[in-house]
Amino acid sequence: MAKHYDQAFHLWYSHHYELKRMVTLGIDGGCQWGKHPKRRCQHCSIQGLTPKVAALEKVIPTLESIVGELHSNVYAAGDSTLGFSKNQWQGTFAFLDQLAEACENSSVLRSHRFMLAYGLVSEFLKSAEICKGFIRTWNVGIETFDSKLLKSASKGINRGKEHIYDALELARELDYRLYVSGILGLPNTTVQSLAREVEDWLTFAEMYQDIVTTLSVSLPSVIPGSRMYWDIYNTQPEVREWHGEFIPCHKLSKLYIKKYTEVEIEDVQAALNDIAKGTLSIAQNGGNPLKFGGYMMGGIDAAEMKENELLKEIVAQLD
To answer: Rounded to whole angstroms, how far apart are CA atoms 300 and 296?
Structure first.
């Protein structure tokens, strides 16, 4: 961790955080939005996972150890952590309310905003004020600013551009940082809508460059367990042939885009390149540096190079 990951964190993220490293800790699981079968996001593999949270009496001492002894931030690797406040989802959970109070009462935690946590747009709007004392970064899958594409992907809870920008402005007002992801090539994408999406993402990057830590936009990953996967599995014989321990991810994305959109994978890849170049050019033109993509590379040693070569050989044999 100190040799590679800490170095990567220092390079990409340290200027956004008081503490200069990050460790992962799961404190919840399940998604309130996805609990209902008809509205589960099509690209998500969290299907039917019952929402649940860890015991607060165990969470707080663990956080105190990580923050106080390791001097580390915490990536709360939950499925939708910001959905667990009392003022949403019929008040089923008050976990965030209790966690905020416990952090404020902790001599170790009260002076730090140390957590990165995921939440849907509507969840953030309801929990941002509650969590502003301990959460530093809001991790959100915006996916697209197009309300029609959001609806076709069963992520209608994000609603559309105006609703998303309400949340982004609240994040800026409360001094949050943003780790944002998106998907190009969602069902019903057209050439025209794809061009608009490129404009939307570049406008977003320019407007929020001061608080964005990462912008990660990608092709649709057709993950086994997701509605995307089972829809194409049930309708395309070749997918059933591919089904197994090793999944040809790129082939699946290409086939999915061909079947459910009016564009080709080459169009989507070109659009991704435009977003990447535009995002990276912000810093080149004197703006704030934004990281594009979700990977952190802290260095490659001899053992890792050997592992990569072995993996390439295995993949070549499978092809």
So the answer is: 12
**Separation of alpha carbons 154 and 165, rounded Å:** 20
Three-state SS for 176?
coil
Element of type H or E holding 217: strand 212-218
State whether residue 165 is helix, strand or coil: helix
Q: Residue 164: phi, psi to the nearest 5?
A: -65, -45
CB 226, CB 44: distance < 8 Å: yes
Whether 9 contacts 22, CB under 8 Å: yes
User: Quick check: 275 and 262 in contact, CB under 8 A?
Assistant: no
What is the greatest pairwise CA distance in the chain? 59
In this predicted model, what pLDDT tens digit does every residue of 139-180 receive, in sequence order? Answer: 999 999 998 998 887 776 777 899 999 999 999 999 999 999
pTM: 0.89
Convert 233-264 to b/e letters by CB count within 10 Å (16 or more is b): beeeeebeeeeeeebbeeebbbbbbeebbebe
Question: Which residues does 157 contact at the CB level (< 8 Å), separation at least 6?
Answer: 33, 39, 120, 121, 122
pLDDT of residue 224: 86
CA-closest candidate to residue 212, choices 48, 12, 27, 8: 12
150: amino acid identity, one letter: L
Residues of the chain with pLDDT > 70: what percent? 92
Domain-wise residue ranges, the chain: 5-318
CATH superfamily of 5-318: tm_1862 like domain (3.80.30.20)
| Residue 298 pLDDT | 43
Which one has a higher pLDDT value, 309 or 168?
168
Q: What is the 3-state secondary structure (H, E, C) of 189-211?
A: CCHHHHHHHHHHHHHHHHHCCCC
Cα 83–Cα 42–Cα 220 angle in degrees, nearest 5: 110
CA dist 151 → 41, 146, 203 (Å): 9, 9, 22
**What is the overall mean pLDDT for the chain?**
90
